[in-house]
Inverse folding.
C-alpha cells in the first residue's frame, strides 16, 4: 500500500488586528504612521506629559506628534511637502 506524506506549505499567512485612528486623520491620511506608531501610545505620551489640547482644534495634539515624526522621516523637504505627504489621502474629501 503506497504511503502519502503531506509536506508543510512553503507559505505561511500571519494575520493580526491593529486598532488605528478613525476620522479625518486616519491611516492613509497620515501616511500610515498611525499603523506604525499606535495612536494609543501617542495619546498616553501626551497625557503623561500633560500636553493634550484643551479644545479640539484644526490640528489636534496627536496630529502634531505625527507631523513631527514625519518631519524626522523627510528631513530633506520643507514643512509644506511633509504636510502634503501626510494629507495626500484627503484629496477629494470634504474638509469640515
Amino acid at each position: 500500500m503506497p504511503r502519502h506524506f503531506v509536506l508543510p506549505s512553503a507559505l505561511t499567512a500571519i494575520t493580526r488586528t491593529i486598532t488605528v485612528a478613525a476620522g479625518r486623520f486616519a491611516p492613509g491620511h497620515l501616511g500610515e504612521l498611525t499603523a506604525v506608531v499606535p495612536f494609543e501610545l501617542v495619546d498616553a505620551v501626551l497625557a503623561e506629559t500633560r500636553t493634550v489640547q484643551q479644545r479640539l482644534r484644526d490640528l489636534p495634539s496627536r496630529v502634531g506628534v505625527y507631523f513631527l515624526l514625519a518631519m524626522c522621516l523627510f528631513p530633506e523637504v520643507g514643512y509644506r511637502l511633509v504636510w502634503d505627504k501626510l494629507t495626500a489621502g484627503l484629496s477629494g474629501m470634504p474638509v469640515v
The helical segments are 33-36, 39-48, 61-73, 79-86.
